[in-house]
Each structure stands twice: as structure tokens, then as C-alpha cells.
Backbone:
């Protein structure tokens, strides 16, 4: 709950002072709430829900203890970077109570993306190419993965994803936290 409340404030670009002004709740109480040092009362949640224009049930649903078992295609978030030629779909988004997630990636021909560091050292990745050809560099080794092939590894350093073409590369990426 604390994390979601902090996210809502940041999404709006509000400082703690601004939220305190809007809710009538002290800045120190809001700060302690966002750091999970205190639990919100129903009255405090009511004030926050009003400021964030949410029903209490909606806010509580956003912080469910269990993730939904079914993530429908229309509810999966898609992010595209036209500049790099990369499209990413969160097929099974991350959840604090789970260690794995599934992502669909599409790279257009010629796309070449490098990452200096892993988001989490020792991150386990399984890359299953569904269409096209994908060149992946991990751990200093370059791997050419074709449709139907699967590469798995733990990521400790730099990585690179490249689509040599001539067709786009579409792949499933299974990510497992260490």
C-alpha cells in the first residue's frame, strides 16, 4: 500500500507538501505512511482516495496481495521505442510476490540495443525466438538464435540484442529474479 500511495503522488508531480495541503494530513504523517512506518486508518485512506480521485475499492484492488491469474491480452501493457525499433509487451507483468515474468519483444530489422548493466545482477533469462533471427550477446558470447531456438543464461554484465534481418525478430523473454 505504501509503495502505491507514493507512486500515485509522484505520478501527479506532487510534493509531500502539496499532498498535505490537498488532504489536510500532515507532511510527516504522509511521509511515514509512504515509508510503511505506519498503517493508514480508514479516515486517512478516505482523504487520500479523494485527493487521488479513486474509490477505496479501486485503490485496494491496485495493491492486491495476489496477482491476477489471468492477464488478458487487452490489459497487457505495450511500450514502443520507434527510435531503436523495439516493441515490448508485458505478457505477464512483474509482481512483488512472484519472481518471474514473461515479455514479448519485437525488433525491426537492423535494430541494435545494448545495455551496460543488468537491472539485477544474476538475472535469469530464457529467450525463445518465435519469428525471425535474433543475435544476443551475453557474458561476452554472441549467440544467433533462430525461430524455435531458446537461449538461457544468467546475466551478470553487458548485453546486446540485434536483429540482423531481413525480417523482424519476435521473441518471448522469460525473466526470473535470482
Residues:
Amino acid at each position: 500500500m505504501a509503495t502505491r500511495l507514493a507512486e500515485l503522488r509522484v505520478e501527479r508531480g506532487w510534493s509531500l507538501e502539496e499532498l498535505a495541503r490537498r488532504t489536510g494530513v500532515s507532511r510527516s504523517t504522509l511521509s511515514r505512511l509512504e515509508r510503511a512506518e505506519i498503517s493508514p486508518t480508514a479516515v486517512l485512506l478516505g482523504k487520500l482516495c479523494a485527493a487521488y480521485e479513486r474509490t477505496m475499492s479501486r485503490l485496494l484492488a491496485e495493491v492486491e496481495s495476489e496477482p491476477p491469474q489471468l492477464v488478458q491480452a487487452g490489459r497487457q501493457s505495450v511500450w514502443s521505442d520507434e527510435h531503436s525499433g523495439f516493441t515490448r509487451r508485458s505478457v505477464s507483468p512483474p509482481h512483488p510476490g512472484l519472481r518471474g515474468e514473461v515479455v514479448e519483444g519485437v525488433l525491426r530489422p537492423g535494430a541494435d540495443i545494448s545495455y551496460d548493466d543488468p537491472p539485477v545482477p544474476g538475472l535469469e533469462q530464457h529467450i525463445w525466438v518465435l519469428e525471425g533471427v535474433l543475435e544476443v550477446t551475453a557474458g561476452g558470447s554472441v549467440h544467433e538464435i533462430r525461430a524455435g531456438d531458446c537461449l538461457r543464461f544468467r546475466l551478470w554484465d553487458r548485453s546486446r540484442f540485434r536483429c540482423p534481418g531481413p525480417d523482424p525478430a519476435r521473441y518471448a523473454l522469460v525473466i526470473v529474479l535470482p
The radius of gyration is 21 Å.
